[in-house]
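Subject: complex prediction, re-run

Hi both,

The earlier run crashed halfway through, so I resubmitted it with identical inputs.
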Amino acid sequence: MRAPARLQGIQHWGTVVLPRAWLQPGIGAPAGVRAALVWGRDDAGAERAAGLRILMVEDDEALSQMYATRLRRDGHDVTTVGDGESGLKAALTGNFDLVFLDISLPRMDGISILEHMRQDQATADCPVVILSNYSEPPLLAKGKELGVRRYLVKSETSPAEIAASVRGWIAG
Amino acid sequence: MQAVLQVLQYVVALAFAFLGAISVVDLVRWPGRRRAYIAMALGFLGLTSLVAQVGQLVGGNPPWVLPVFVVAFQLSGFGLVLLRDSFIRLPAWGWGIAVLGLGGTAAALLILGFPNAPAKPTTLQYSALVGVFVAWMAAVAEPSLQFWLASRRLPTVQRRRMQALSLGYVGIVAVLLLSLFIPSAATNIAVRIATSLVTLAMVPLLYAGFSPPQWLRRIWREAEEEPFREAVHDLLLFSPTRRGLAERGVEWAIRLVGAESGLLVDGDGQVMAARGLGPDEAARRAEALRGDEPDAVEVAAGLSGRSIVLPMPLDNGTGYMVVEAGPFTPLFGQDEVVRLRQYVSSVTAALDRARVSERVIALEEVKSRFLKLASHELRGPLALVKGYMSMVNEGSLTIEELERVMPMIQGRLEQMSTMLNEMLETARLEDDRLELKPELFDMRQAVQSVATALAPLAGKERPLRVKVPEQEVPVVADRSRVETIVTNMLDNAIKYSPAGGDIDCIVEVRGGDALVEVIDRGIGIAGEDMGTVFTRFGRVTNDATISIPGTGLGLYLSRELARMHSGDLTARSRAGEGSTFTLQLPLAGAAA
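This time it finished cleanly. Structure:
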C-alpha cells in the first residue's frame, strides 16, 4: 500500500488517513498533526502549512516531471499540463494557489495564457511564476507588466530553489 | 523702307513655312499623337503665313486665298488646343468654347467675305476678321499659359522647351494684338518693321520648343549640374536598399537627359523601377529587352534617338537602364548617350554594393536568430541535468529515483553534444575547413550501428525496422560523416513521430548508387515548408514542432556532407502522413 503522492518522502512507519481539509491552505491541520507532517524532513522545524495546489504548464515532459517530483516531495499537489490551451483551461478553473508558466508552448504561448488569466475574475490575482528558456528584456518587461511573481530561467535555477521559494511567492 | 518691310515680311513668312515643314518632317520620322498636334499647329501656321503673302506677289488676293487662310489659321489654333488636352485634360465646356469660337468666327468671316485691298470692308466684315484673330489668340494663349505653369514641375530640359514654345506663341499673340487694336501700328512703317522682327524672333523660340539643338540642351542642363552631382553622390552613398536606389536612379537618369520616362531592369529580367510608365508597359519593355542582344539594343538606341538602352553588368546578370523621349523631350544624341553611360556605370556599382550590404545584413540577422535559438535549445537539457544534480546534492532524490532518470539525463547530454557537434561542423563547413577522411566500408554496417545506438531513443512506440540487402554495399566515404547523416535522418524520424509509428530504414543498391531510405509515419512536412528544412538554420515552427528540440542545422549539414561525397539527400513528405528521406552516395568503384 502506497501513501498518497503528497505524503511520499515523509519518513513514516505507517499510513495515517488525514481529513482532506487539513491539507487545504487556510484551514490546515491542527498544530500537532502539522508538526507530525513536517517531521523527518531535512528542513523540518520550519512551521509551514500543508501542501499547495500548484499548476505547471510545461511542454518538456522530462523537466515538468523533475519539478513536480521535487515539489510533491514537499507535500504540494502538483498538476502538470503539456500545452498552452490545456494550460489555460486548467488555470481558469481557479483551483490553484500558484501557476508555473513556460513561454514557448504548443497551441498557446505562456504570455497569452497569462493575459487571459488576468482578464478572468477567478485568476486575475493568481500568483504566477514564469519558468522559461527565454529571457529577452521585452519578455521580462511583459511579465512584470502582467504582475508575475518571478521570471525564472530554467537553466539558472534549480528544483530546490523553486521548492524553497513557493510559499514566499504566494505570500506576495 | 517699304521695300525693307516687304522683304522682311517675305522672310518671316518663309521662316514660319520652314518651321511648319520641319515639324511635319519630324512627325513623319517619329510618328506620335503629340507630335502630330505640334505638326498641325505649326504646319498650318506656316501655310497661313505663305498664303498671306500671295496677295502681295500676284497683286490682289485670288478668291481661294481667304477660305484657305481662315481654315488653316483656325486649324493651327485648334492643333494647340489638342496638344494642351493631351497634357492637361480640357473639360467639355472648354471644348465647346474652342470649337464654337474657332469654327464660328471662321464661318462668319467666310459667309461675310472680306474685300481686297483698295475696297473698304464693312464694319461687320471687319468685326468678323477681328473675331477670327481673337478666337485664334484665345485658343493659343490659354494653352501657352498652361504649358508655362505645367513646365515648372519638369526637369530643366523639358521645362525650357515648354517655356520656349509658350513664349513663342505669346510673342505672336502680342504682335497680333498690337496690329489689331493700335491703328498706328498698322500704318507706321517703323512699327511694322519692329513687329515683323519680333515675329521673326519667335521662330527660333518655337523651333527650340519641339526640336532644340544639342548645344542648347547642354546649356539648359548646366543649371541642373550641381544638384545632379550631389544627388548622385547621395544616391551612391546612402541608398540602403537596391529598390530605393533603383527608383532614385531612374528618376535622375530621366532628369539627366531630359527624358520623359525610364525604367531599370534587374539582372534577372525583372523591372526594378519605372517612371512615367505603367507596370504593364514597363514589363513589356523588359520582356522585349530579354530577346535582344545587348549590343544590338544599343545600336538601335543610337539610331532611333527615341530611347537610350544601356546594359548594366550586374552581379546577377545583365540589367538595363532605359530612358525614353516624349514629344516634349529631346530626341537623344551622342551627348546624352555619353552622359548617361557615365552615370549608369556608377548606378551599376552602387546596385552591386547595395546587394552586398543587403546580404550582409540578412546574414547577420540569420546568425543572431540562430544564436538565440541555439542558446534556448541548449538551456532545456542543461536545466534538466543541473536540476537533478541539485536534487542529488540536497538529498531530495533517492539513489533508486536517480537510477530511473539516469537514461533521460544521458539522452539530454547526448542531445546537447549532437547540437554542439552540428554547430561546430557547420562552422567548419562555412570556413572550408571540413576535411573528409574517406575509407572503404560497408554501408550496411554503418547503418546498423547507428540504428542500434538509436533504438533506445526510439522506444517501443516507434519500432525501428532496418532492412539491408544480402550482399555488401561498399562505399568510399568519410564513415563518421556518413554516420552523422544517418543519425540525423533516424533522429529526425524519431523526433518528428511524437505519437509513435513504425520507422523503416532501408539500405539498397540502385544503379551505381547506394541508397539509404528512412521512412516515418510522423507529422510530415507541408509542401510550403519543404524549402525551409534544408536551409541553414531553417526550422519549421508550428504547434506540432515547437516542443521538439533542434538547431535547424541537421538537414542542412547532412545535405552538404552528402554533396561533398558526390551524393545527395532528398525528401518526400506530406503533412500529417510522415516523411521519407533518401541518402544517395556513389558505390565504391562506380564511375563518378
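The interface with chain A takes residues 376-380, 382-384, 386-388, 390-391, 393-397, 401, 405, 408, 412, 543-544, 546-547 of chain B (CB under 8 Å).

- K.
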